[in-house]
Amino acid sequence: MKLEARFMIAELRRWARSSALAQVAVAIGIGALAGASVTAMSWAAEAMHVAFFGIAFDTRLSAAARISPVAAFLTLSIGGLLIGGVEFWRRRRKLPPTVDPIEANALRGGRLSLRDGLLVVAQTLVSNGCGASVGLEAGYAQIGAALASRIGVGFKFRRQDLRMLVGCGAAGAIAAAFAAPLTGAFYAFELIIGAYSLSNAAPVLAAAVAGALTVKSLGGAPYLLHAPPVAALGLEHHLALVVLGLVAAALGVAAMRAAAVVERGFQASRLPIWARPVAGGLVVALFASFTPQALGAGHGAMGLDIPRALGALTLASLIVVKLTSCLISLASGFRGGLFFASLFVGALLGKLYALLVAAALPGLALDPTACIYAGMGTLGVAIVGGPLTMTFLVLESSGDLSVAGGVLAACIASSLAVRISFGYSFSTWRLHLRGENIRGAQDIGWQRELTVARLMDRDPAMARAQETLAEFRAAHPLGSAHYVALEDEVGRYAGLVAVPEAYVEGLTPARPVHEIARFLEATLAPEMSAREALALFETAQSETLAVVDSASFALLGTLGEAYAARRYAEAISLAARGVLDQG
């Protein structure tokens, strides 16, 4: 029976890996799991809000008329203590930071820990449930991607297929959160996979549809967006929305730079790691005593503010309060996302922009609702990324193609402005602050895996540096090797000798061979990537370089430029084939 079960599992794996239809079936299952996870997390967060803040179950936390200051201070303090305690425990155990879907696809070939995913879900639920100014969407995407990765590893999917499945998990989660399949799919294409191709289109779209249908059958999406109809837009209105996109880009870049400053402020403080979220929670609770809109992701507040007539000063104040609350929450250690918070602040920015334009150019007749949608999309692009993702979110929310066109133009302007002036989304910026130099989910992990240690010749031709030329010629006749590495009397690297140069006429046979050695300083380290090695070959202008230990300067091997270049080109070809292959 065991042999039969193993045979069936092996056949199932083979079918799943080789059949495009099987991958679509797996993707549908992943999307359904992601949708169910989104529903469970949303219910849990709402139940926590009801229990901790005493609001009605059908009332969003940020839309409450008033929150008890005592409840806010107490709940955020206890929640911060829990979050801080977990981080203190992780650091005591010297555990590495959890990996998010973007980092997993960029550096790890789509491998995500399900245990870490569940930990992120728990941290996100505690953070949002106790009222910190963060959204659940980071947890949604994390658990969807982690489940997908675990399933893909179980099926032994290839690297590119595993990366695609991680995108399916995130697509199903975001599609479920907003009841927007196209939004979820393009979230995966633009932010998680980093490319769109015919081979991954069907599974990702299937997962997104499955996620949206699952959450609909379980009671509805947690983040549904509603706004009045939009008046027809002319060319001048499109141009005005593009300007709004540039304003949103400036605000987004300022917020991301401010996040780094606030985080450094917490790190420089004398507060222990477990106390930082408590301090951040107390600040957010202070803001909540003025307006509950500082709490949570802001979904209820958006539904409250869009139809209301708010003055410019009120709108500007809400923007400052919400952004500050978000940055303090994240910088102090609370876990969550800025996806919906960026939409909420963007909607406020759109309303404020419409008021200012109406005052400055009353003849333009710019529709405030169009500005709200454009503000949502453009600030979302500036902070989260994904111009098509945000455009489809507006389209699926409004059902209006005309406004989607104006929002697309504004989103492209915002995306270009952020790329030129800053170059990061909020997720990649936080990775950059941790020391990871990645700009998106494009697969660059293979470049780091293709190291000098993997490529080098571990048994090169060697000689003692004290040998005479006569001894060297006897041991290494012409044609036996192109370069010979030298070692001194204590085993340290002493240079490379080109064998033909040892046979040049006029050299005294009794002369020490180390006197004609070269490239003593130009050496490779085993941890260098192939790309870094090729750059050093170009600088040193050598066909071969030695690989030495950086601490002891002991010779570890040699590497040839031609071989390194060929292996690097092969790796690029395989990576490109994995993205572009339509089969």
What would you note in describing this structure?
With 583 residues, the protein is mainly alpha-helical. It folds into 3 domains: 2-217, Clc chloride channel, CATH 1.10.3080.10; 235-440, Clc chloride channel (Orthogonal Bundle), CATH 1.10.3080.10; 447-572, CBS-domain. The protein is built from 23 helices and 6 strands. The radius of gyration is 29 Å and the shape is elongated.
Task: Please tell me what the overall shape is.
Answer: elongated
Q: What's the CATH first level of the largest domain?
A: Mainly Alpha
- What percent strand? under 5%
Helix-strand makeup class: mainly alpha
Low-confidence parts, pLDDT < 50 over ≥5 residues? 578-583
Level-2 CATH architecture of the largest domain: Orthogonal Bundle
Q: How many runs of DSSP E, i.e. beta strands?
A: 6
What is the string of helix and strand elements?
HHHHHHHHHHHHHHHHHHHHEHEEEHEEH
Sheet with most strands: strand arrangement: 1-2-3
Mean pLDDT, to the nearest integer, reads 86
Supply the CATH superfamily name of the largest domain.
Answer: Clc chloride channel
Helix content: 55-70%
Q: Which short descriptors sum up this protein?
A:
6 strands; Clc chloride channel; 3-stranded mixed sheet; mainly alpha
Set down the secondary structure blueprint:
Elements: H1 2-18, H2 20-53, H3 69-92, H4 101-107, H5 114-129, H6 137-154, H7 159-178, H8 181-193, H9 198-217, H10 235-268, H11 276-290, H12 299-305, H13 312-332, H14 339-360, H15 368-383, H16 387-398, H17 401-421, H18 426-433, H19 445-449, H20 452-455, E1 462-464, H21 469-475, E2 483-487, E3 493-498, E4 523-524, H22 530-540, E5 544-548, E6 555-560, H23 561-580
